[in-house]
TrEMBL record:
It comes from Maribacter flavus. The keyword Transmembrane helix applies. Residues 47-389 form the Sulfatase N-terminal domain. GO terms for molecular function: iduronate-2-sulfatase activity; metal ion binding. The chain crosses the membrane at residues 12-32. Pfam families: Sulfatase. This is Sulfatase. Its cofactor is Ca(2+).
């Protein structure tokens, strides 16, 4: 329950009356800003295990990949089947998730800027928990991992971050030099298959560190964020995970090549994959190479799944499941061969739609699925509400809505639309000249590419996804759909109004 505090400072009598009514009605007192550690002192603690992965598409379930541990969590929690990232790129998405703000309000659309450089006093999700007396620990890639002036975000944590800073290509197995990041090697191949233990790669070491941390935190209220680096390129995983899949029998793709009717601005030409030594810099990528890349991506997903299982098993062994909320999400979607692309950075459904699972000890319908539209900015208000943390005086206004009404009824809606943004040209960082904004309602996706200089619309796309979530047929020119287009444009402009 939230009660507005506007005018209370000027009306002492009203404040005392409200406090009296609060006590009579047994409303939790921290709503009025009492001791921030009161919940912990009274033992009313809900720990958080926040598991974020990198570049995982939502199709892992559709393709029936080998992910028994994620599937087990889905069966115990709630699957949000229509969850969307606010940016299909690491830094803007992660900054948005962890501050509860849309990229346009943060003014962050690319990987280079650190949000602290623009908003030095903004509070992050783990920082809010830390301020409440929780031990907040970050292991792995939570904030962006490379190319910024600030490594991670020290203000968010109770102790220095671990395994959080490196280039992805430095997570590589070198015989004789196992179990370390290799900052002295050039970027190599996009795939690696070696018969090595899980700990030969970062995610194996991150899982072990998370397990040891849980053991040390058993008696301590905690917010533990675990950021896995996979299945991001390079697709390297121990051989046993490659062996799960027969390369000649990989799941079929909906679209094997680019679609001619789509704006060129939406495609990326496998830009990131082409930066690795075994993928051609230009021209077609051979079918054999595409199969190898897909095989490696699926192996990396199964490798990732095994690490998640280790951590949740330890949480159970420590009897912490009934005291801990678990969140599992990817920072954005991904093309693993769909449309002939390998990479993120797109406004398609597959580029913006993400896996999201939330487990809570108080969940009344475990194993349920919601197809209501939600956004990753909704996680911030959800977790603080579950923990009963007062955020009335938070330095920023949160852009998301709590998911708790959907926990009570999976069919309930907390919003009608989801919005995502990505700039062009690729790699232009702060010098981008075009911004692509996408809005998704229950049935349609509308994409608008705009000039930053004069605000003119360069290209538009409209997709009817009512029957097939991943169908790509641009019907923007269909006169019968113009009422839909105008309505989505209005909603998009309203949502993107800068504060």
């Amino acid at each position: 329950m939230k009660i507005s505090t506007i005018g209370l400072r000027d009306n002492v009598f009203l404040l005392r009356s409200l406090l009296f009514i609060t006590v009579i009605l047994f409303i939790k007192p921290n709503i009025f800003g009492q001791d921030s550690h009161e919940n912990i002192q009274e033992g009313n603690v809900n720990n958080v295990l926040f598991i974020m992965v990198d570049d995982l598409f939502n199709n892992f379930n559709v393709y029936d990949l080998r992910t028994p541990n994620i599937n087990k969590l889905i069966n115990r929690g709630m699957l949000f089947d229509r969850a969307y990232a606010q940016a299909p790129l690491c830094n803007p998405s992660r900054s948005s998730i962890l501050t509860g703000k849309r990229p346009n309000n943060l003014r962050i659309w690319s990987n280079a800027p650190h949000f602290r450089g623009i908003h030095p006093r903004i509070k992050t999700l783990p920082e809010v928990f830390k301020d409440q007396g929780y031990t907040a620990i970050g292991i792995g890639k939570i904030f962006h991992n490379w190319g910024q002036a600030l490594m991670g975000d020290p203000k968010s944590w109770s102790r220095p971050e671990m395994y959080h800073w490196a280039a992805h290509s430095q997570d590589w197995y070198i015989p004789g030099r196992p179990f370390e990041i290799h900052g002295d090697i050039p970027k190599g191949a996009a795939v690696q298959m070696e018969d090595v233990p899980d700990e030969a790669y970062l995610d194996g070491r991150i899982a072990n560190e998370a397990i040891n941390t849980l053991r040390n935190l058993r008696e301590t209220p905690f917010f533990l964020a675990v950021g896995f680096w996979k299945p991001h390129l390079p697709y390297n995983a121990p051989k046993k995970y490659w062996d799960y899949y027969d390369r000649s029998k990989l799941p079929s793709l909906s679209y094997t090549d680019e679609i001619n009717s789509i704006s060129d601005w939406n495609y990326i030409d496998s830009n990131e994959a082409r930066s690795y030594s075994d993928v051609p810099k230009n021209g077609p990528i051979s079918d054999n190479k595409k199969l190898e890349l897909r095989h490696g991506y699926y192996a990396a997903i199964s490798f990732l799944d095994a690490q998640i299982g280790k951590i949740i098993d330890e949480l159970e062994n420590l009897d912490l499941m009934d005291k801990t909320t678990i969140v599992f999400l990817s920072d954005h979607g991904y093309h693993a061969g769909e449309h002939g692309q390998f990479g993120k950075w797109t406004n398609f459904e597959i580029g913006t739609r993400v896996p999201l699972v939330v487990y809570s000890p108080n969940l009344t319908k475990p194993g349920s699925k919601s197809s209501s539209i939600v956004e990753l900015i909704d996680l911030f208000p959800t977790l603080v509400e579950i923990a009963d943390i007062d955020i009335e005086n938070l330095s920023q206004k949160l852009d998301g809505n709590s998911l708790l009404p959907i926990f009570e009824n999976p069919k309930r809606e907390i919003k009608k639309i989801a919005v995502s943004q990505i700039p062009r040209p690729l790699g232009s960082e702060a010098n981008f000249s075009i911004i692509g904004s996408s809005i998704r309602d229950k049935d349609y996706r509308y994409v608008q590419w705009k000039s930053v200089n004069n605000d003119s619309i360069i290209a538009e796309e409209l997709y009817n996804l009512k029957q097939n979530l991943f169908k790509v047929d641009n019907i923007i020119s269909d006169k019968r759909e113009q009422r839909i287009v105008q309505g989505l444009k209005r909603s998009l402009n309203e949502t993107l109004k800068v504060e």
